[in-house]
Amino acid sequence: MLRVRGMIAPAAIRRGPLAGFWSRSPVLQPRRRLASTTFADASPLASSSATVSSSSSTSLRPLAYWLLGTGALVAGMVTVGGITRLTKSGLSMTDWRVQGSLPPLNETEWQAEFARYKQFPEYQQRQSMTLDEFKFIFYWEWGHRMMGRFIGLAYGLPFAYFAVRGRIPRSLYPRLATLFALGGGQGLIGWWMVKSGLEMDPQQRKEIRVSPYRLTAHLGMAFTTFSLLIWTGMDLFHPPEHAVRAATALKTQLAAAARTGGPQASQELLTRVLRVRHLGIASAGLLGVTILSGAFVAGNDAGRAYNTFPKMGEDFWIPPEVWEMEPKWRNFFENTALVQLDHRVLALSTAGLISATFLAARRGQVWRVLPAETRTALTATVGMAGAQVALGISTLLMYVPVPLAAAHQAGSLVLLSLLSWSVHSLKFLKKLPVQSVQRSLPKSVGKGGAEGASAAVEGGKMVAQL
């Protein structure tokens, strides 16, 4: 058999009809060395998952826990960052040091820090601020920055340990290096964002705040880092034998549909399963755009205007001032009316598309043939989508209270996680070896049944284009 640092790829997988799952796995391209024994090939589909589940899954789980744990820390930091913005704390620290620093430790140091803050534009609009009020906003910003440095250690130290112990598959290194780059870049972009507020002319704005463009870049990179962490963690939790089990179960259902429904039944069933995955991917893309539009709402403080729903104000579905800025493209990113309208439309569209994905999964026999994991993930996702819409509307109607607004931002992370889980649970369809599955379908279904099974699996050729 083939051993890979504690993972075993049995001959049943290497030469069986589902061999492609091992050889094409994105994070499990192994170092290969021969051992002295081999597995029998008598029952390739029945025995493969049981053979390897106790080895490869176990050896990769520490890596998965590490990455998912780091993702949870990033989610916490994003939430704290949202509170920092909502409490107007982001400009309280007027310098940035790579290594970080302790907060002021005595009254003299606090007075000196407060004096530095008074030299910047934000204080000119908040001259009634007391030292105690300054301490409050300073601690939020300081805590947010120190969380970033802690996450760097939480990622870097385990990485060094696993690398020295040879526990990281070679093909995983590029992705881990990308995560390193994203983490380092996030700190730089954060300071670039803060500088936009420190350097703003108080005569040009009623309220000093950071650039909405830079805020969106900062939040977008944070969500990108979070998404890559949890996706890679799920990859490691679902090694090749998981795909073997899922594909085997689907093959069985296709064969049953061919026996009972004729040539078109299997074709239709497979097409509907693929449609669920397509809709899930589209939902994830639309959710990403919605999250970025929410960043522009935050950057323009647009949630404190038009605090009615579903109309914007008492009389308008679309306010007349949506195109008042020149050039026109600026309205999408800087005009409070259009920025908020965009977010409303995108949020409701995302919730609608997630609901359509769930309904497509519930249609006909699709729900029964989907993996149990997918059914659980989709149910949780559609429920969270409804909760997120309710949180957003409540935040708007109540004039953006900090607890609700922070919960709304945290809810976007939860929704993204659940939707990613839903899509990832169907990832095995992307690499479904169509011809091999076709050959493995029962030969006893008769001429019409065999043709039906063949037609069903032909629909799987669509997968290669995903």
UniProtKB/TrEMBL annotation:
It catalyses: Fe(II)-heme o + 2 A + H2O = Fe(II)-heme a + 2 AH2. Its cofactor is heme b. GO terms for biological process: heme A biosynthetic process. Pathway: Porphyrin-containing compound metabolism; heme A biosynthesis; heme A from heme O: step 1/1. It is a multi-pass membrane protein. The keyword Chloroplast does not apply. Keywords: Heme biosynthesis, Iron, Membrane, Metal-binding, Oxidoreductase, Transmembrane, Transmembrane helix. InterPro entries: COX15/CtaA_fam, HemeA_Synthase_type2. The keyword Oxidoreductase applies. GO terms for molecular function: heme A synthase activity; metal ion binding; oxidoreductase activity, acting on NAD(P)H, heme protein as acceptor. The chain crosses the membrane at residues 63-83, 146-164, 176-194, 215-234, 279-298, 377-400, 406-423. Signal peptide: none annotated. This is Cytochrome c oxidase assembly protein cox15-like protein. Its main location: membrane.
